[in-house]
Each structure stands twice: as structure tokens, then as C-alpha cells.
Amino acid sequence: MLRALSEMENACALHRSAFASREDSVQVRQNQKAIRHLDLTDVQLASSETARGINRNIVLELIRANQPLSRADISRRSGLQRSTVSQIVEQLIRENWVREGAVASLARGRHPTLLGLNEDLMVIAVDIHPRQATVAMVDLNGRLLSRSVVPLTSNPAASTRLITDCVQRMRIDFQGKSIEGVGVSLPGRFDPTTQRMIFAPNLHWSDFDLRGTIESETGLSVSMENAATACLLAELLFGRLNGVRDAVLVTVSEGIGAGVFANGQVITGHHGMAGEFGHVSLDPAGILCACGRKGCWETVASCEAARRYYHELQPNTGTITFHELLNKAEEGDQSAVQALAKQAHQIGRGLGPIISGLSPRVILVAGDITSAWHRFGPVIEEEAKALSLAGEAPQILPTHDGDIARLRGAAALVFQRRFVREPSQTVEQSANRSKSRKRII
Ligand SMILES: [Zn+2]
Asked: Residue 236: which of 16, 61, 10, 3 has the closest Cα?
């Protein structure tokens, strides 16, 4: 899965390079330094094409984080020669990533043209859940400009038609903008080798060519990734993983998924299947899971499990959504409080294999439960402490913008295809230091 890993590294690179709101940029730049590995031997042997890609990445990152700024500013901040910067900027303008804007007035009569990201460059992000999908228009700065929710059924062809209709409506709404492609976050796993959805037990779309169908219906290229991994990627950029090299992000919704960041790398595993902790069985005699096994973590800790716990306590009530359950608990309904407490305990219990197997420094939790973190947080933290074998227990943090992070992650999957690899320094700087052959962290 070297290829998959490489793709995910590039996805991280994209996040850091071209896909943050300006407000988040400082955090992003700190994260970049914290997690980047660059072997100088690789740099020394890199082809000129790779070197151009690295320098181009640096220029794009500087523009994104500091826009608007001049070519001279880029040269000064990057250490790249003025001529190199000019060549790269011209290429980025030709490719529509960057635009020239205002003219600055400086002392001594100089008037450099300022550069910024092309805000007309868009990606359509699709976040798929078992019963609905969110479709959003996202710009190169990570801003959501439009968002629609479409219902999904167990019929993949009909559901995908609803998604593609929504995509086409958005394209009409944003006529004149340049759409780079469609990024999709999935409630399951996507095999990067076969380019097919390989495992999505809650979606019930067996062996359906989702990617090929969206591409043929819209004419746009499509990139896909598991929702937890997409969410993790977004957290690497926008979140609080500054300096953290070992983290796991757990999504809790209709099912449970996990994205794994270990030793500074996003882990995808063979067939892209790494992180399916939701299907680790905690009770071999438990209830049947959608995957066909019994007592999986998600059968006792998902939002569906919480709804089931409530119905066990209140069998005469009708169907209740998870949001309604949260509201009832806030209103003092003791059955709702108990159901959510049981879910929280089970979420914490299922962290055992993650803590023992991966020893993350941080475990991020995403999903609707984070809106009631005062109920979930302390219980999960207590379990994590009890399950830690030695050393400091992992820090448990909620991600308060779960859906937005997933949409941003989905969009990043498209933008990242243009990038080569992310440097921690410029090629010119690397070449100067390469004789030492030290590994840069
Ligand atoms: Zn299962």
C-alpha cells in the first residue's frame, strides 16, 4: 500500500498547502513542521520535475497562508531565488491556482502586484451517510459556499442519481467558477488499487461503482476516501494536532470508523482497510452487526445503539432520532440520560484495542455526540485512563465541526492530486545542507 500511503501523504500536503481558511493558517503551518519527514538523500536524488513540484508547493503554501503578497515577499520568505519564484508564479497563474490582484504602494515608489489564491477554483464535496448525503461547494480557501442534503436509500443507482442531480444543480448555481472535481467521504472503505468501494456494511451498496457512475454522469473526476480518514486529514490541517505524531480520529454516527495517524503518517493499510475498529468484536455473543459478525464495537457504541438503549427503557415510544434523544436528555428525561451514558461507556470501552495497539497521544472523537460532550467526555476519558497499559493516557478531544471537517477533507482529496510532495524546507535549502545527510523532522 505504498501508493495509498503516498496518496494520503499528498492529501496532508494539500491540506497544508492550499486548503485552509486564512484564520486557520497559523495553526496549519505549525502542524506542518510537526509532522513532516524529509529524507535529504531523496531530495538529492530527486528528479528536476519533483524539485519543481516541491518548490511550487512551497510557493502555493506561502500565498495561501499570507495572501495577498508579492513575488518579492515569497522570495524573501522561502529562500528561493527571484527568478525561480517568478517562473513558479507564472505557472500557477496559467493553471488557475493563483491570481494577480491589487498593486501595493510601498516606500520609494515601488508598486509590486500582489498575489492571492484563485477563489473561483472550486471542489464539490460529498459526505455520504447511510441515509443521506451532504453536497457542498468548497473553495480553495476551505470555505463552504453552498450546502444541500439529499436523502439516500438502499438503491445505489437511484441514490447516486440524486447526488449527481444535486452536483449538477450546484454547477449551474456557480456558473463561471472552475470546478476541479468531486471529493467523496464514505461511510466505509475504498480500495485505492481497484478504485471500488470495498467495505460499507451500513450503506448496503454492494459492489457498486460509485466513482465511475458519478464521473460518467457529471464528466468531473472523482476522489474518494473513508469519512474518518477524510475527517482526520481535515483535523491535521484545521485542528489541534500541533506537534502530535500519533493520533486516532473516531467517528461516531450510524456506525463507528477510525482514521489512524501513526509516527507522522496516515495509515491506510492493505486494500485501504486499516482503522476498522468499529468491527472489532467486544462480545462474541452480542447482537448481529451489519458486517455479519456479532457484538462489534459499533453495535454497542454507535448512535443507533443509543437509540436502541432508549427503546429498551421506553418500549412504548415511537421512532426517535439521535438528535431528539440528545434533546430529551437535556430536558431531564432520565431514560435518555441513561441511554446516552451507556453509549458513552461503550465508546470508552472500545478504545481498548486502539490504545493497546497504536498508543496514540490524542484520540479525537467526531460526530453528533460532541454536542453533548459534557455527558460523553468525562466517561470516555475515565475509560481511556483505565485501559492504558503504561505511561500517560491518551488525551481525548471532541471535534466540534465534524460535518464541516468531513466536507473539507473530501474536497482536499481532489485538490491534492495536483501536488507532488510536501517539503519541510525548500529544495535550494535542502541542497545546501544535503552533505550532512541528516534526517530532518
Ligand atoms: Zn461489524
From this structure: 16
Report the separation in Å between the CA atom of 240 and the middle of ligand 1, taken as the mean of its atom positions.
30
Question: pLDDT per residue over 309-331, tens digit each?
Answer: 999 999 988 899 999 999 999 99
Residue 5 predicted with pLDDT over 80:
no
CA–CA separation, 423 and 53 (whole Å): 10
Round to whole Å and give the CA distance between 201 and 199: 6
Q: Averaged over 156-160, what is the pLDDT?
A: 93
CATH number of 246-401: 3.30.420.40
Residue 8 pLDDT exceeds 70: no
Please state, in angstroms and rounded to a whole number, the distance separating the CA atoms of residues 208 and 344. 34
What is the spatial distance between Cα 316 and Cα 338, in angstroms, rounded to a whole number?
17
Evaluated on CA atoms 252, 256, 262, 265, the torsion sign reads negative
Question: Any idea where the domains of the chain sit in the sequence?
Answer: 246-401
Taking the centre of ligand 1 as the mean of its atom positions, its distance from the CA of residue 273, in whole angstroms, is: 13
Give residue 346 CA to ligand 1 midpoint distance, Å.
15
Q: What global pTM score does this model have?
A: 0.71
Q: What is the pLDDT of residues 261-278, one digit of tens each?
A: 999 888 888 888 899 999
Cα–Cα dist 302/387, whole Å: 20
222-226 and 178-186 beta bridge pairing:
parallel
Whole-angstrom CA distances from 166 to 160, 171, 414 are: 10, 9, 18
DSSP-derived pairing of the beta strands 439-440 and 38-39: antiparallel
Ligand 1 centroid–CA 289 distance in Å is 5
Give how far the C-alpha of residue 349 lies from the chain's centroid of Cα atoms, to the nearest Å.
25
CA end-to-end distance (rounded Å), the chain? 23
Report the range of poorest mean pLDDT among 110-114, 238-242, 380-384.
238-242
Least Cα distance to 427 among 18, 38, 13 occurs for: 38
Q: What length is written for the chain? A: 441
Q: How far is CA 52 from CA 55, 84, 426, in A?
A: 5, 9, 10
